[in-house]
Structure formats: C-alpha cells, structure tokens
Amino acid sequence: MDRTVIAYVIYLVVSIALTVWVARTLSRNGRIFLADVLRGNEKLADAVNHLLVVGFYLVNLGFVALYLGDDETIRDTRGVFEALSTKLGVVLLVLGVMHLGNVYVLNRIRRRGVMEREQLPPVAPQQWIAPTAGA
Predict the structure, then answer these.
(1) Which of 8, 88, 109, 114 has a 20 to 30 Å separation from 61 between CA atoms?
(2) What mean pLDDT is predicted for residues 89-112?
(3) TM spans, by residue (predicted)?
C-alpha cells in the first residue's frame, strides 16, 4: 500500500475520532450553559444543543474531507508524520476556533438575557401616579 494512502487513512481516523470526541464533550457540558442562556427552558436547550452538534459535525467533517487531498506524494515515513502533523494541526485549530465561536455567541446571548433580567423592577408596580404640573 502507498504511504500517501496510509497517511490519508490515519488522518481520517484520527480527525473523525477527534471531531466526535469534541462534539460529545461540547454537547454534554454545553447543555448546562445553554439551559442558563435560555433561562431554564430545558426542551429548548436540548433542541438548540442538538442543532449545534449537527452543525458542528457538518462543518468539521466537511472541512476534514476537503482538506484530505494533497498534491505531493509521501515518499518516506518522515513524510507521513509531517503530513499528518500539518493536517491534524489544522483540523485541531479549526475545531478550537469553532468551539470559541460558539462560546462567544452563546455568552453574548447570555449577557443580553442577564441585562434584561436586571432591568426588571424587583416588585410589580402597585399604583400609577400622575405627573404633577411644572415638574
């Protein structure tokens, strides 16, 4: 078997395994964060969490597939390691950027919700007072 094909197989196995592991970790731990962002609405948090995981898989696995090809033929074992380190390093960076992007957006939504909750009066108004003349 050609070394280039061996490098492709290793790249796909490791990249897919990393993507699945990161997605599961984010899904499991992100659910609590989403519930807070969505003010305790568990069903909505689960639905949003599932949609985010599906989108995460589509983007990352699509990137892994597009980044598979290479014009160079790998001639020795050192070339296998160099090609794998480059490809896996880029995949890990993309996974990290995707994760940070998700956390940033969700944190912005959470902050907006916290600000809205703080602007509500602590008790409901009990009466209405008409403005006085000259005030």
Answers:
(1) 109
(2) 84
(3) 6-26, 47-68, 88-107
